[in-house]
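Q: What would this complex look like in 3D?
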Amino acid sequence: MSQAASLPWLASHEFRLGWRDWVSLMTAGGRRRARNAVIALIIFAAFMHVFAYWTVAAYANANLASDTATLVGLTGTLVLSWSLLLSQAMESVTRAFYARSDLDLILTSPASARKVFAVRMGRIATAAIAIAVLLAAPFINVLAFLGGSRWLGAYGVVAAMGAVATAAALALTIALFRVVGAKRTRLIAQIVAAVIGAAFVIGLQVAAIFSAGSLSRFTALQSDWTLRHAPVADSAFWWPARAVLGDYAALAAVLAFSIVFLAGSIALFSRRFGEHAVAAAGVSSTTVRQRRWSLAFRRRSAGRVLRQKEWALLRRDPWLISQTLMQILYLIPPALLLWITFGKGNDAFVVLIPVVVMAAGQLAGGLAWLSISGEDAPDLVATAPIAAHRVLAAKIEAVIGMIALIFAPLVGMMAFGEVYAALVCAVGILAAAAASTMIQLCFRVQARRSQFRRRQTSSRIATFAEAFSSIAWAATSALAAAQTWAALGAAVIALGLLAAIWLVSPSRA
Amino acid sequence: MNSQNFPVALALRGVSKRFDRPAVDALDLTVYGGEFYALVGPNGAGKTTTLRMVVGLLAPDAGSICIEGIDALSDPVAAKQLTAWVSDEPMIYDKLTPYEYLEFVAGLWRIEPAAAEARARELIGWLGLEPHAHERCEGFSKGMRQKVALAGALVHDPKLIILDEPLTGLDAGTARQVKNVLRERVHAGGTVIMSTHILEVAERMADRIGVIAGGRLIAEGTLDDLRRQTGETATSLEDTFLTLVAEQEAAA
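A: Here is my prediction, written as structure tokens for the whole assembly.
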């Protein structure tokens, strides 16, 4: 057994907590759920291997030369994956600064805070590496099975990417603390993390759309301009790509660099981590004064009081606004592609409408969760002299009202082009939003609004149902906009999906 | 005070609630108008479950609940119009100010805006919240949050206010402010039912005390009544309480 408060002792404590967090996230504590989670993981792993076979099997035995085109394509894919890892690592590092669960105990104990935080950073890095390796494993396994052991070096590259992403996330977050201060770092870091995760994908897709009218990011990576301006083939810039292709010297260099970079970051920042954690602890006492035109209480119905409360809470929470609107960001490239491709004449609406309807469904799901499950004073509302169905109606109206406010300008602009298309779009938006709201009603669980990011893990069925429902309503709207009777069939599928969700929902039990 | 000359504010008859085991077991309880009634009992005795059923947060498995003569199970909205609930964990909105919170509560209870505003100003003054009335609640301490929750409970002038361990975690000054407000409420003719584990508070503030254990009301009355039940005359409520609970556990 290791000595108390030593690095190994602290590491074993951190990793035990990390393991239990993960198990509890997967199983929600139930023995039966644990079995179901294992079965689901096995099915997911099998599915991912099939998917990997479908996507990469052709490359396994290909005689991939280390030419610039191959290296650019491979490096682009690695950078794309790395940006997502960086985004996740930034989320984890920011959470570690602001979570108060055990920081008070740590900072008041005689144990070296530097050691504790070094271990904590190690845990974040390990989690990032584990997730990266797990997600990449099916692809590497398929390549290695079909193409030989040279592909196994990719495991090392993926692990190195996880380590470098964590080190970069540490540096970025500490830099934010120093530049904008503890008060603003949380919000900005989370927005930066989301933007980093989305920007690279979106940027490449937008570039591809304008250059070749294709949604594929590879189109932009293989363009003449990119290949002309890429570094020479023997540049160190290509080491990660070379390592993936089986160059063991490049692999050793990549691994060495990632280990040094991560260890250096941890050594450099572990002392600052404590200072910034203390600074972050003082943020909650920041005072925000509200001004209003009149201090007189206003005469309003109970429903209006509830709706306005929902809108005020959302309006005053920039973090929640950024998290909910971020989903729309991913819809920019397909919308742009559709506009560029079919932008001549009113046919463009037929392909634009489903994108808008899909966005409305996804956005409504998030807003409905906040309004229905994320009620911070459930006892107050439940003990108020208002029938439960009126409370629910007011909350649904608040969600639909917000959706209407966001999408009305778009539908209005559409109406100038073609009234029928605008009408179909409006009905589609309402249907998708109502369906997502109904799904949230079926799967409602009491939670704090601050748990918004974890809402997907509370019910995976609700998350998938919301996505499928939005897709079904998007398809219905597209077919309706194209004026085909097949729209009725799609609508029946969308309604059938809702009926199935209602039948299996826990609120009905 | 002989509270039994007053109308019944709350009547529970045969109320039962079972989770894994019976939490409340055929409970009969009567609280009179203008009375300060303290509900005491060991952890897991069924105090919170009982109070949550009264305010409509839990549905009883059996029995009836009448608030000011209104059947709370068949007409919950009318019953809720007369009641207020304060729990040990103040649930307020971080992004609203105390003033906005009180306006929100007054709107839910459909109180005349002018009257609600006057009452809100009065409560904010009583509870010492003026300097923070227009600050968002997100930076408030537990005591401040509890004061805001209490102001919210009183802004609609309820006939019956029900509090579950409202003094837990409050400092002496805040606890005294809360007790003063509750005492004033009773003097004004309101009824207060409070569960507490601070026996000294029950002893000093309550007109009658109900001792609950194993989901049943095992003793009830003034402090003197309770002492007589234990056959001892010169003991504190703590001694009386421990004796009653020990007798109940021995009998169970």
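A: To summarize the key features: The mean pLDDT of chain B is 87. Chain B touches chain A at residues 55-57, 77-78, 80-81, 83-85, 87, 91-97, 99-100, 103-110, 113-114, 116-117, 120, 134-136, 138-139, 152 (CB under 8 Å).
Q: Very helpful, thank you.
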